[in-house]
């Protein structure tokens, strides 16, 4: 399997998902959005591991994998290689975690448990959804807070967990990196920040006189401190449309052309004139089930999750909750994301019964 090509395809999936969230959920013209498609993709991968039939086919198609084996291989490499913590080497601090909460009356199918263990390195908790739903919700929220370094305190809102819940599958990501060349805080000044509705507000902007990595239509690369990690190099890429109201069109272009992001990574440092980068902190949350249905992932919300537990009822995805956080300042970036999928009971799977009427 070509891991590099798979990552390129996953980037395309991320951008497409971001576009759909932007156009379907960001209805307020002055609202801000931060999203981690990777976090959502990891939870979808966990769901795919417990699916079959049409549900599995739709998940593989959306995630651009040819088989569940390919999906598991790439997920494992992302977790162990890309998200390995770089802080011991002087690089960014990274972490990825997966959790599974299962009703105490249920037991995992061995094949699903094996994937959760070997691919996702998941932790487990047996809970009482029937009688202690609120306690289970609190446990998931506490886990999320711990795994995101207290940046995301509540992934599951009140009422998200009830007696119908059978499993909860969750992912949490954390990143903290220092700029390779830090900004001077004394140079940060308020300036005009243009909004999508053609208005503007005053916002703090960081600046620098040093050469920067730029591409033709304003793509800025800001590298993070790498330390002694010679295998990976993390950077932030800022895409700036030429037109003040050009963000929707730029996002549509980025997400519609395969490989666009990789083809527009700045490679050379150039001298720039006026150079201002906003200093900001954003938190954003969505219930993503309608977004996923809008991109063709519909079957898992109906049925097909038959490979997770030994159970005589069909399971389905009820809701998918997602939250992301990012803070960018003169020192660097701190970010976190979490996604939790609620797996509920469906209708009882009825066994075939013979009925033969015999008469003399």
Describe this structure in words.
This protein has 360 residues and is an alpha+beta fold. The chain has two domains: 3-178 and 281-329, Antithrombin, subunit I, domain 2 (Antithrombin, Chain I, domain 2); 185-278, Alpha-1-antitrypsin, domain 1, CATH 2.30.39. It is built from nine helices and 13 strands. It has helices at 3-25, 37-49, 53-63, 68-82, 110-118, 133-147, 247-256, 260-263, 289-294, and strands spanning 93-103, 123-127, 165-178, 189-194, 200-207, 212-214, 219-223, 235-239, 269-270, 276-278, 280-287, 313-328, 332-348. The radius of gyration is 23 Å and the shape is globular.
Enter the CATH topology name of the largest domain: Antithrombin, Chain I, domain 2
Portion of residues in helices? 25-40%
Looking at how many chains there are and whether they match, the oligomeric state comes to: single chain
Strand composition percent: 25-35%
Can you say what the CATH homologous superfamily of the largest domain is?
Antithrombin, subunit I, domain 2
Overall domain count: 2
Question: Biggest sheet: strands side by side, in what order?
Answer: 2-1-3-13-12-11
Coarse shape: globular
Total helical elements: 9
Overall structural class, as computed from helix and strand content, comes to: alpha+beta
